[in-house]
Records
---
Amino acid sequence: MTKVVDKIRKKTARYGLAVLFVVVFGASYFVTRHKSQKNEESVNLQKIEYAAFTESELSKFDGSDGSAPIYLALNGLVYDVSTGRDFYKTDGPYHYLAGKDSSDELNLVGGEIIKKKYPVIGRLIK
């Protein structure tokens, strides 16, 4: 009886180690892959030549002119949020973010949504 129990324990230990290896290897793979994707995105952003905006120039695109595009800056990049005009126009709920560097506000909440939803069209020059 003890031999059978010992065999079961050894097999369980081997499978446990195999499962642990797969979990650790898998997790490290995804972490490494995620970091390399971020590095590739960073390199790709550096290769593209963007228009340069000063804060004064950016302020002209604050949503108050219904025919002009609406821009906002986040972490040094300028995003065209015109497709969300209803949110960023003068009486829109997010108008206070339009036409300026909104990094402080958006880094608290919402920055990832901006990055995923809207195109980068320039760089902010301080």
---
Amino acid sequence: MSVEETTAEAPADRRASLLPTALIGLAFLAIAIVFAASSSWYDTFLAVHILFVVLWIGGGVFLTIFAILAERARDGAQLVSIAKMAAFAGERIFAPAAIVVLAMGIAMVLNADLGFGHFWLIFGLLGFASSFVVGVAVLGPRSKKLDALLTQNGPDDAETQAAISKLLLIARADIAVLLLVIVDMVTKPFS
């Protein structure tokens, strides 16, 4: 099979998978609503909170692992691809998911009348705030700079590769903080 044949078939394959994907999504949503309707508000908030934590932090861990593997393989093209995926996901998937996580966390605290004075809640909010600031003030601007470097110098340029490495290192530190927030939320230390 030639490249032309593969390219010609790709749009039809994409359209063919749209309907099953939409049906899977609708089935998930319908069943999730049935489950939520038989639960308390707190449990519903918790379920949404955990689902979006999985999307946000799980996605970040996934990208981090693949970036480490690409670095170890010294695969510059794959690193560029992962950096582009991370920039896309950070802006269009992780940021909205993080907002839902925060909103559902606040809803749980208010619903259970927990108060915000507990160490584990304060640590979680500080972890969220640090990740938000890193995303907006560091990762976002560095991603835009990386796009400019890719356009100007290409993916194999030393400056481009150095920018990718720095971006991914910062993202690793951010993921480590978020994983600590998960441990904090589950163990509720110093409570």
